[in-house]
Amino acid sequence: MSQWLPIADLAQKVQAGELTAVALVEQALATIAAKQEFKAIIVTLSERARTRAKAIDATIKAGQSAGRLAGVPFIAKDNFLVFGAATTAASNILKGFNAPYQAVAIEKLEAEGAICVAKANLDAFAHGASTENSDFFTTLNPHDKTRVPGGSSGGSAVAVALDMAPFALGTDTGGSTRQPASFVGCVGFKPTYGLISRSGVVAMASSTDVIGALARTTADVALVLDVMAGKDNLDGTTIDADPAGYTALTTDMHGKKVGLIKEYFGQGADPAVEALIKSAAEKLKVTGVEVVEVSLPTLPVALAVYYILCPAEVSSNLSRYDGQRFGFTSASATDLEQSYTQSRGVGFGKEAKRRIMIGTYVLSSGYYDAYYKKAQTVRTKLINEFNEAFTTVDFLLGPVAPTTAFKIGANSNDPLQMYLADVMTVAANLVGVPAISVPAGLVDGLPVGLQLMAPQRADAALLALAAQAEAVLV
Predict the structure, then answer these.
(1) For residues 247 and 223, what is the distance between their CA atoms, to the nearest angstrom?
(2) Which residues contact 349 (CB under 8 A, 6 or more apart)?
(3) Distance in angstroms (rounded) separating the CA atoms of residues 23 and 54
(4) How high is the pLDDT of residue 228?
(5) CA angle, residues 254, 259, 263, in degrees to nearest 5
(6) Less CB within 10 Å around the terminal CB: N or C of the chain?
(7) How remote is the C-alpha of 352 from its chain's centroid?
(8) 431 burial class (0-12, 13-18, 19+ CB within 10 angstroms)?
(9) How many CA atoms lie within 13 A of 301 on its CB side?
(10) CB 5: neighbour CB atoms within 10 A?
């Protein structure tokens, strides 16, 4: 049982004077301090959080509204620009970088009274599926300290699972909110591409990057989305929010169809995970949905497409970290070229270097057509298959990951095996549809997430189904 009330209840009680923002911030900071051994947090923003909490309590005392998230503490993945501490994206090349402005998502949450109390660990620059690629330390899974929490938003997921805050922000480029949510047993949501502004968030792969939220329940995630969603002039890829909002969660599911994705079963997935997901699909029928099998024939190559397109965009986005304008600079360099090579050589970890090299290779003359262009063509085919599937079903269903959380170190020296952890999540990013992981149960004492997907912009309907799934699965 969580020590936090639902987010809406917390805010209401703070606004009513039954709880104080100061007390909630102290509770969050105390929990973070008590659970340091799990290494979920890179830095706390205690001074700024306490100052903001006092200001919110004073606003309420003066009889004014402090917002829909009044006094609610939250944790941001450390690739969000936030005042009060350095933003590092868990990479040595950004150690000590203090943001000159805040991410739009953070500004929107703060405008409604939420208080950022800490920055969570991640795979450096969000490159990874285990949080082992952090340049600082590996976050531990709360269910078994010898296992990974997933990635790249591993710290955010663990922070939620350990009650460090009622919700945490993550990013999802190929599954980075859903997969850790599955591994630690919380809810992880990836909205439609462009629904939340990415201004002020360290870029990884700009055509698939999405801001996500992790929380205990779908209702909490929906409220956080409702606050963050919408068009933003600082991000040209953003789309309008649903005028009806995202918090109703009342859609009647009778007559709706859920497609069980054929390609996600029988292809190397743990049989116990498969059985649990199929059982969850059966239980979903109680909500009134019909479950049918659907096929997306191109799905088996989605991972290959992703690991061509994603590194291509990474190699471009990471070119700005050159040791000249911000972040780490090599002190021993004697000329500009040496400064570039030494700063990047020391500052970037091995996974960042691997992705830069792969990305530069697939974009290079003579290989662009063979790899990058072909991958974009297959991506279009995948988009068409999803669109076609959504003409016959309203939602898609499958596992989030082929296994439960794996052991720390198990895949560290085998990049291909590590990349396979994303095999069931990357497609949603490539086609830009919303997707969510909700806890489906345990296999050998370890959590397993049920993945649900919906057409683009159908985020409200997806959250409604997820809330109903939660009710029948818990």
Answers:
(1) 6
(2) 91, 92, 124, 133, 135
(3) 10
(4) 98
(5) 165
(6) N
(7) 19
(8) buried
(9) 16
(10) 15
Q: How far apart are CA 181 and CA 449, in angstroms?
A: 7
Burial of 219-249, coded b for 16+ CB within 10 Å and e otherwise, reads bbbbbbbbbbbbebeeeeebbebbeeebbeb
Confidence label for 82 from pLDDT (cuts 50, 70 and 90): very high
Cα angle 376-208-180, degrees, rounded to a multiple of 5? 130
Contact 389, 454 (CB under 8 A): no
Cα separation, 224 vs 402, whole angstroms? 28
The angle at the Cα of 291, spanning 287 to 293, to the nearest 5 degrees, equals 165
* pLDDT higher than 90, residue 258: yes
Residue 464: closest CA among 182, 177, 256, 234: 256
Q: Report yes or no: 401 and 179 within 8 Å, Cβ to Cβ.
A: yes
* Residues, the chain: 474
Q: Cα 87 from chain centroid?
A: 17
Could you name the CATH architecture of 7-228? Alpha-Beta Complex (3.90)
What does the block give as tokens for 91? Answer: 């990479």
* Interstrand relation of 257-261 and 290-294 (parallel, antiparallel or unpaired): parallel
**Residues annotated as catalytic (active site), given as ranges:** 77, 152, 176
Check: CB of residue 244 under 8 Å from CB of residue 226: no
Q: Where are the domains of the chain?
A: 7-228
Q: Which amino acid is at 233?
A: N
Cβ-defined contacts of 275-284 (< 8 Å, 24+): 276/440, 276/441, 276/443, 276/448, 277/397, 277/398, 277/399, 277/440, 277/448, 277/450, 279/441, 280/440, 280/441, 280/450, 280/469, 280/473, 281/397, 283/472, 283/473, 284/258, 284/397, 284/468, 284/469, 284/472
Token digits for 441?
A: 């149960």
* Single-letter residue type at 170: G
**Chain segment 67-76, per-residue pLDDT in tens:** 999 999 999 9
Structure confidence by residue, pLDDT tens digits, 397-432: 999 999 999 999 999 888 888 988 899 999 999 999
